[in-house]
Design goal:
single chain; 2 domains; 6-stranded antiparallel beta barrel; 12 strands; elongated
Length: 167
């Protein structure tokens, strides 16, 4: 399968090997864990090697996965700590008022007066809701809550309009 490395999205991390037959435990980062079952393949690590999923089951908040071609515990242990990626085309289509975080990274950020203040550098969630990290035009970083009080409008493929920020 051919793919563009920049079209890959990190959706999890391989935690450890389980059992003797090459199964691995994956921590999935998405909000809705049921979407994991939609993936018949994914890519692992910096080299983005493709693996087909032979079987999977849930283990509390993680997934136990059998990868095609990984048949021994030692092979599975060698994959520990590798990030799990999918292609953009594997994502489900969302409604008009929904978006994936990767669609927002890099968007221009403007205030309500149409002045550019920076761009979205990252999105974090430390447990109390999403936080936008904005790289300001002066190269400083600012974080704001990703709420309707701060984010007034999102125009995909263009910009995000935010409330006025204190300098």
């Amino acid at each position: 399968m051919t793919f563009e490395k920049e079209n890959l999205i990190c959706v999890g991390i391989l935690l450890e090997a389980k059992g003797l037959k090459g199964e691995v435990l994956i921590k999935y980062f998405a909000e809705n864990p049921s979407t994991f079952s939609d993936y018949s393949y994914f890519f692992l690590g910096k080299e983005k090697k493709e693996y087909k999923v032979s079987n999977f089951s849930t283990r509390k908040e993680h997934f136990l996965v059998k990868l095609h071609g990984v048949d021994r515990r030692t092979e599975a242990e060698a994959l520990k700590g590798k990030e799990v990626f999918i292609e953009n085309l594997q994502l489900k289509k969302l409604g008009d008022d929904a978006w994936y975080h990767n669609q927002l990274i890099g968007l221009a950020v403007e205030n309500s007066s149409d002045q550019r203040v920076g761009s979205i550098a990252a999105i974090y969630n430390f447990g109390a809701g999403d936080i936008l990290e904005i790289k300001l035009t002066n190269n400083k970083l600012e974080m704001i809550p990703f709420t309707k009080d701060f984010v007034l409008e999102i125009i995909l493929n263009d910009k995000i309009i935010i409330a006025e920020m204190d300098s």
